[in-house]
Amino acid sequence: MSDSDYVMVMPRPGTAADFQRREIATPQPGEGQVLLRQQAVGLNFLDVYHRNGTYPWPVERDLVPGSEGAGVVEAVGPDVTGLRVGDRVAYTLPLNAYASARLIAADRLVRVPDGITAQQAATLMLKGLTAHYLITSTFPIRPGMIALVQAAAGGVGQIIGPWIRAQGGTVIGTAGGAEKTALARDLGYDHVIDYGAQDVAARVAEITGGKGVNVVYDGVGQATWKGSLASLAVRGMMVSFGQSSGAVAPVPMAELGAKSLFLTRPTLFQHIADPAELQSRAAEMFAALADGKISAQVSHQFPLAEVARAHDALEARQTTGATVLIP
Ligand SMILES: NC(=O)c1ccc[n+]([C@@H]2O[C@H](COP(=O)([O-])OP(=O)(O)OC[C@H]3O[C@@H](n4cnc5c(N)ncnc54)[C@H](OP(=O)(O)O)[C@@H]3O)[C@@H](O)[C@H]2O)c1
């Protein structure tokens, strides 16, 4: 057990170059808490929104971004039952993951099954649980349905595409450039569109015989909004769950009325706030991994202390799939 640790902080909203390493005394768990020694931290676009102030700055000054991680329980608070020192666990929470060790409420942790590494678990907790709620709760995929996924080669995209197929759906993915479209094809997407070079709605119309898709899962936002709406079938569901290219402008209702479309803007944390729901979704996610329905490949690794490089790569669209930070 160490008595000093570190976190990566942003003193104020800014660029990745503004990250600072800060040494901290190793915290001691209070009631209901455990001390988690982190072995891997997942990188997410959400971290970029927190870092640059796209999302409200929720603290006085120093912000520690980071939303998913995995490691080993190093100490437990006085009243914690069900978890012991040495247990392998993982979590997703909106902030404070960029740390070598951290306190965490015991009811936010899930056990990592044998055979799944800390790095895999760290990448699945936010991205995999997101894919899970999107295709089981937001718009449940049933056999015969056709879905469009924007940014198919990204972190969420690599998980959600194969999972839609495993549920009996057909899935069309978009990605930028030859390398990423090839990757999406290898992942099992039925059709892949290079959205830098092709008209997405026109290709979707060709693929679906003019009908359009039942649902679009769009985490790209501004750049893909119009193509997503144009790709939907009559009475289709537009799921806008992110904005890696920028925020979607306010939507005139008539844009939806033209095809009687449904529109939703869901977030993960409202789907796992209840500890029992968190546990059941995580259990289904780990089962899907064990059954080979999804995979948890770690595509890129950076030392946590060099998180600035990881942010730059993510924002510059240089990453595919999941990236982990190693404390
Ligand atoms: N609502 C929720 O519950 C929830 C949960 C998790 C994630 N999300 C959202 O889901 C999205 C995907 O997250 P992720 O962490 O898996 O990221 P990611 O998809 O790995 O990275 C973003 C990808 O978006 C594409 N992109 C298109 N235009 C871009 C631009 N102007 N700048 C940067 N990237 C652009 C890039 O792929 P190409 O190069 O192929 O275009 C890039 O690789 C994010 O918007 C995230 O906030 C939402």
Q: What do we call the CATH topology of the largest domain?
A: Quinone Oxidoreductase, Chain A, domain 1
The assigned structural class equals alpha/beta
SSE run: EEEHEEEEHEHEHEHEHEHEHEHE
What is the first-to-last residue Cα distance? Answer: 15 Å
What shape does the CA trace take?
Answer: globular
| Largest sheet properties | 7 strands, mixed
Features:
9 helices; 2 domains; binds NADP nicotinamide-adenine-dinucleotide phosphate; 327 residues; alpha/beta; Quinone Oxidoreductase, Chain A, domain 1; six-stranded parallel β-sheet; Rossmann fold
Folded structure, characterized:
The structure is a single chain. This protein has 327 residues and is an alpha/beta fold. It is 29% helix and 26% strand. The strands form 3 sheets. Strands 3, 4, 5, 6, 7, 14 and 15 form a 7-stranded mixed beta sheet that branches. A 6-stranded parallel beta sheet has the order 10-9-8-11-12-13, with helices on both faces. Strand 11, helix 6 and strand 12 (232-240) form a beta-alpha-beta unit. Helix 2 (118-138) crosses helix 3 (155-166). The mean pLDDT is 96. NADP nicotinamide-adenine-dinucleotide phosphate binds at residues 44-46, 126-127, 130, 151, 153-157, 175-176, 180, 219-220, 223, 241-245, 266-268, 314-315, 317, 319.
Please summarize what this structure is:
The chain has helices spanning 45-52, 118-138, 155-166, 178-187, 200-207, 225-231, 253-257, 275-290, 307-315, and strands spanning 4-9, 20-25, 33-42, 68-76, 88-92, 101-105, 110-111, 146-149, 170-175, 191-194, 213-218, 232-240, 262-264, 298-303, 322-326. With 327 residues, the chain is an alpha/beta fold. Strands 3, 4, 5, 6, 7, 14 and 15 form a seven-stranded mixed sheet that branches.
